[in-house]
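[Automated response] Your request has been received and processed.

Submitted sequence:
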Amino acid sequence: ALKDEPNNAMTENDLTEKSITPMGGFSHYGEVNEDWIMLKGSIMGCKRRLITLRKSLLPQMSRRATEKVELKFIDTASKMGHGRFQTCEEKAKFYGGATAKKARKAADEEGAEAES
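Generated structure:
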């Protein structure tokens, strides 16, 4: 399950610790909480279409069927708008001034409450 391995979108070339769910979740679906499978190509129908996978009746001997798939990168940027960040940490690092300002403001408020 996803809870057992939270960094399941890492590859040998991309060592960023990230989950398969893009930032903000999948459009019209949300977050992936269960096991998942990645398919090559496309599938007809709606986004949540039920797919039945079965073992092939004939042995697959073609070059395309026997090639080893080697993933180099899994894009987990948001697909809503112009997403360019793979993780929340990367986004916070880019917008460092805004997040640092919020953290300082929260710390100041906590300090003011403690003094009262």
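Summary generated for your ticket: The radius of gyration is 21 Å. The chain has three helices and no strands.
If you did not submit this request, please reply to this message.
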